[in-house]
Amino acid sequence: MTETWTHEYEYEFPDGKRLEIGWTFKCFGEKGKTYRFIKATTNAAGTTWIDCFGGSHQREQSRAFDPERINTTTIKVPKRRAE
After folding, report:
1. Cα(21)–Cα(11) distance, rounded to whole angstroms?
2. What residues form DSSP beta bridges with 54?
3. Which residue pairs from 64-69 have beta carbons closer than 8 angstroms and sit at least 24 positions apart in sequence?
4. HEC per residue, 27-42
5. Regions in the chain scoring below 70 on pLDDT
6. Confidence at residue 41, expressed as pLDDT on a 0 to 100 scale
7. Of 63, 44, 58, 50, nearest in space to 11 by CA
8. Which of 24, 45, 59, 76 is the most buried if burial means most Cβ atoms within 10 Å?
9. In this predicted structure, what is the pLDDT of residue 34?
């Protein structure tokens, strides 16, 4: 069954904004919680969801959201350390 599922480590929204591994975002209906993108998963039926990690400060957990619940105006690229 899992052979028909696809995993993408970058996701582009219809408005042109995108997510990559480690980028943070907020969701509608999740007041004050920030999540980090892990991957986008699509099943055999064509349903896509966003796998992420985060939540409240002391209660972080893995979550999956419908892409329509993600507030694309809150997407942030993490600051990278200069090497």
Report:
1. 9
2. 35, 61
3. 65/27, 65/35, 67/11, 67/13, 67/40, 69/27, 69/28, 69/29
4. ECCCCCCEEEEEEEEE
5. 1-3, 81-83
6. 96
7. 50
8. 24
9. 92
